[in-house]
Every structure is written in C-alpha cells, then in structure tokens.
C-alpha cells in the first residue's frame, strides 16, 4: 500500500483515506489481466483481418492511461459532482445515440457506432452508467422533501433511451439498461403490483423481440435446438474450455483465437479458459463477484437514497454485463455480443467502464453524516 499519512489534507490525501482501496485493487487486477489478454487474443484477430498484428494491442495500450486517469479522476468527485457529470453524459450520450441512426457506422447489421476523429465510439456504453445515476436521482427526488414526481420523470427519460437502442438495434444493451432501471425502481419502493406488471411487460418485450428481430430468433433457436442454427462460435468456445482443462494449455498456446472472429472481444473468456484453464477462469469470476459484493457491503449503512440507488444501479449494470458475456461463452444463454468488463478489447467499453467504476468509487467514498437526499 502507498504510504499516505492520515494528516494529509490534500485532495489526493483525503481521497486515499476515503476511497475503497480493496475495490481499487480488484479493478486493477481486471485491468492488468485485460492487458495480458490483449496480447494473447488480439494479434491473431488482427492478422486475420489483414492489419498489423500488434495494431489492436497498441490501440488497447494507448487507451489504458486514458482509462486509468478517467477512473481515478471521476472517483475524486463528490456526490453532487458525480450527479452533474452523469447528467451531462446522459444528455450528450442520447444526442449521439440519435446521431448513430442517421450517421452511424453499420457493423453486422446494426448502427451502434459513430466515428469521431478516427475513433469509433459506441454511445450506448456511456449512456448506460449515466442513465443509472440520473434515474437514481429522479427516484430519490420522489421521496425527497419537495415530493417531485421523480418516478414519472424517470419513466419518461427511460422510454426514448429504450426506443433508440431498439432502433439501432442493440437488444443486449436494451436488456441491461432495462434490468438496471427496474432494479433501481424496485429498490426505490416500487409496489409489488407494479413489480409484477413491469416484469410481465419485460417478458412480453423479450417475446416480441424474438419475432421482431431475425438475428434474435436465430440465436434463440440455435440455443434451444443446436441442430437448427449456426453454432460455430459457441461450439468453438466450448471446445476451448474443454481443451484448457483445469490449468490451461499455457499463455499463447491456445488455438481458438485463430478461428473465432470475436476471440478478442465477445469470446475473450473462451481464450482465458483455453490458455489459462478453469482455475484462472474461476478466479476472474471471483474477482467480479468480489467487486459487486464489496460494493453492496459499502452500501449497507448508506442513508443517502440517491447514493444507494445510483451505486446499486452501477453494480447491477457491471455485474449483469459480466454475467451475460461469460454465460454466452459457456452456452448458458443465447449468444449476445457484449464485452467482458476490462478484459475484452474495445475502446468504448474500456472508457465507459472506467467512467462507471469511477462513479461507483466516488459515490461510495466515506463521507461524514452519509445522510440526506443530496
């Protein structure tokens, strides 16, 4: 640990003694392992798409300092400034979400990316944490002294976000944001009748997506009946885990990255399983679980409703994204293109997750009082 005296009243000194250092350590492990996986999985993918074998690695390492500064910089903010940053990020993200529909880059049939100065940005990745904080603010206002109709405002804000995501289409991101929103709504005191109603609507929406989006139908059919659809990627993924066994084939010795198109991103967990084995894969799962449980533990005595709802939303979003990625790689759910937090390659994902965890660390810092509706 860094030696910082408790008498240090500088910004960094106060931050060091109020931030959750155990969560910082866990996140550092994930980021470091992600850097290792960039070396392990990206060169093969780069060679397959006929670019310099180290170009993706260089891109990832060029963004790591930016991600680190973003995470630490946001964690320095107090509760009010985290909220302000989220509002600005939400407004900008929604504008860019709309722009993707008219000027976005179409990849694999979806317009989710927009090119900004040579950098491909996925706005939905940034809307996800910012909306979680904004929704928490609205829910907390509903129970504040002025009785502002925060629940209604939150639902009004949620509708266009969901609509824009479905128009791209990006069903996976829509599911994560919707699940986070419903979890926050439940924690804010949603009556059980509305829990059942909204849960029913969510199920109806997923059934509707099955019939509305052909790619969703194909993936669900292939999951339910392996003989009915293309299972090339998931079959190779399962083979990778089988080949890796308990202790793996060794760094750089895996073969799945030579044939999987998304070995560096959506299926990076398969590369982990093959090269490092089940033991390391389970360790990564444990680190994700630690971050989530540690965050929950920090909220157990929290009296500020906004902080409680915002941090809970960020934790749900982070944990659900990790669970979807790993479950997809193991064929526990239909495949869904979603990055494994801090470990998959992806600039937008890396920066957005740094923003997410920076907000979480900022919100859960020790504060005198820890009460009110600020």
What is the number of domains? 1
The portion of residues assigned to helices is 55-70%
What is the molecular shape?
globular
Residue windows where pLDDT falls under 50 for at least 5 positions: none
Structural class: mainly alpha
Amount of beta strand: under 5%
- Count of DSSP strands: 3
Query: In what order do the strands lie side by side in the largest sheet?
Result: 1-2-3
Q: What's the rounded overall pLDDT mean?
A: 86
**How does the major sheet shape up?**
3 strands, antiparallel
Q: Any idea what the radius of gyration is?
A: 21 Å
Our count of helices gives 13
3D architecture notes:
This protein is mostly helical and about 375 residues long. The chain has one domain. The chain contains 13 helices and three strands, in the order ααααβββααααααααα. Helix 4 runs parallel beside helix 6, helix 5 packs parallel to helix 7 and helix 12 packs antiparallel against helix 13. It starts with 10 loop residues before the first helix and ends in an 11-residue tail after the last helix.
């Amino acid at each position: 640990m860094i030696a910082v005296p408790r008498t240090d009243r500088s910004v960094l000194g106060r931050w060091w003694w109020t931030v959750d250092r155990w969560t910082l350590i866990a996140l550092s492990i994930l980021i470091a392992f992600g850097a290792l996986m960039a070396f392990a999985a990206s060169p093969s993918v780069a060679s397959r798409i006929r670019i310099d074998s180290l170009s993706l690695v260089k891109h990832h390492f060029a963004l790591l300092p930016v991600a680190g500064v973003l995470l630490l910089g946001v964690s320095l903010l107090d509760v009010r400034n985290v909220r302000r940053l989220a509002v600005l990020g939400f407004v900008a993200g929604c504008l860019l979400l709309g722009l993707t529909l008219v000027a976005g880059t179409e990849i694999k049939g979806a317009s989710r990316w927009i090119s900004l100065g040579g950098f491909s940005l996925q706005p939905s990745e940034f809307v996800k944490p910012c909306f979680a904080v904004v929704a928490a603010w609205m829910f907390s206002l509903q129970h504040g002294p002025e009785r502002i109709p925060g629940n209604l405002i939150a639902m009004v804000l949620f509708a266009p976000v969901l609509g824009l995501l479905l128009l791209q289409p990006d069903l996976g991101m829509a599911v994560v944001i919707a699940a986070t929103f419903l979890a926050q709504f439940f924690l804010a005191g949603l009556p059980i009748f509305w829990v059942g109603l909204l849960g029913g609507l969510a199920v109806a929406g997923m059934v509707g997506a099955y019939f509305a989006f052909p790619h969703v139908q194909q993936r669900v059919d292939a999951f339910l009946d392996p003989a009915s659809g293309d299972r090339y990627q998931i079959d190779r993924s399962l083979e990778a885990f089988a080949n890796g066994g308990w202790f793996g084939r060794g760094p750089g010795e895996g073969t799945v990255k030579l044939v999987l198109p998304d070995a560096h991103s959506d299926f990076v967990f398969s590369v982990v399983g093959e090269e490092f084995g089940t033991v390391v894969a389970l360790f990564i799962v444990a680190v994700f679980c630690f971050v989530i449980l540690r965050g929950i533990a920090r909220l157990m005595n929290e009296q500020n409703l906004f902080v409680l709802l915002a941090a809970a939303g960020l934790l749900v979003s982070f944990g659900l994204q990790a669970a979807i990625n790993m479950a997809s790689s193991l064929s526990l759910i239909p495949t869904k293109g979603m990055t494994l937090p801090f470990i998959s390659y992806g600039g937008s994902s890396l920066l957005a997750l740094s923003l997410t965890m920076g907000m979480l660390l900022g919100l859960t810092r020790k504060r005198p009082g820890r009460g009110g509706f600020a």
